[in-house]
Amino acid sequence: MAVKIYKPVTPSLRGMTGYTFEEITKSEPERSLIVSRRRFAGRNSYGRVTVRHRGGGSRQFVRLVDFKRSKRDVAAKVIAIEYDPIRTARLALLSYADGEKCYIIAPLGVKVGDSLITGPTADIRPGNSLPLANIPVGTLIHNVELEQNKGGQLVRAAGAAAQLLAKEGEYAQVRLPSGEVRLIRQVCYATIGQVGNLDHSNVKLGKAGRKRHMGIRPTVRGSAMSPRDHPHGGGEGRQPIGMASPKSPWGKPTLGYKTRKNKKTDQYIVRRRNAGGGR
């Protein structure tokens, strides 16, 4: 996929880039595989804002993606590559021999007409899904399961890829895109290859309006607020924040402060993503 550059006929178009969509082969989604998306504007079930700067945005439909690749040992043909408004990756529409259709994350190099299959005996080629026990060491993978039959939870963003490093006993060592090396049971499934849409990181929004279309509202700097609203606020004119390290609006440190509290899964982390402790 290539990135298109807009002619700077207005200030907002200067520096703006976008998708060429040359890999998209079908513009309308499969009607049986979409549901309406209900927006909550960052609020929980009590109506309280738990995620700031959310609200508005264009109307979108959720595509029902088969992260489990539930049909095993049945060949499926790729009949379309589609756009998904709520994720960075593209979707591949599969059609099985019995007529059933499903969406999967589109891997790099998979095209319309390709045949994909899920199962222990599948070939090692992009788009096929196998247990980690059947994948050669060194292979790039994505859509990795953390628990057996739960469906892929890791490595699903555009351009992402993990690497299978080693196998020992019941577990395999997988290096995630963050650099973390994690133990995952070898019975868990993963898809061969790298996620497509590599140029996603090269797209520049160019104007605030495109961020609003995505449902993200403006963010105000803490140093522009008053002291009662933010620890960085107050003072005469522009100046340093007046503290050793920045803090969140609620006074929590934001640099070097450990936020990971799930001690149950620490035993599965061979090497942390920053290799120094950190978060």
Describe what you observe in this structure.
By secondary structure, the protein is mainly β. Helix content is 2%, strand content 24%. It contains one helix and 17 strands. The mean pLDDT is 92.
Concise account of the structure shown:
The chain has one helix and 17 strands. The strands form five sheets. The protein has a seven-stranded antiparallel beta sheet, with no helix packed on it. The protein has a four-stranded antiparallel beta sheet with strand order 7-6-5-8, with no helix packed on it.
Provide key terms for this protein.
mainly beta, 279 residues, globular, 1 helix, OB fold (Dihydrolipoamide Acetyltransferase, E2P)
CATH level 1 name: Mainly Beta
Residue runs with pLDDT of under 50 for 5 or more positions: none
Largest sheet data? 7 strands, antiparallel
Order of helices and strands: EEEEEEEEEEEEEEEEHE
Shape-level CATH architecture: Beta Barrel
Structure summary, number of beta strands: 17
Indicate the multimeric state: single chain
Annotated CATH topology = OB fold (Dihydrolipoamide Acetyltransferase, E2P)
Strand order of the largest sheet: 9-16-10-13-14-15-17
**Range of strand content:** 15-25%
The CATH superfamily turns out to be Nucleic acid-binding proteins
Counted up, domains total 1
Question: Which term fits the overall shape?
Answer: globular
* Number of DSSP helical runs: 1
Alpha carbon gap, first and last residue: 34 Å
| Helix proportion | under 10%
Q: Look at the structure and give the mean pLDDT.
A: 92
As a whole number of angstroms, the C-alpha radius of gyration is 22 Å
Pairing-aware structural class of the strands and helices?
A: mainly beta
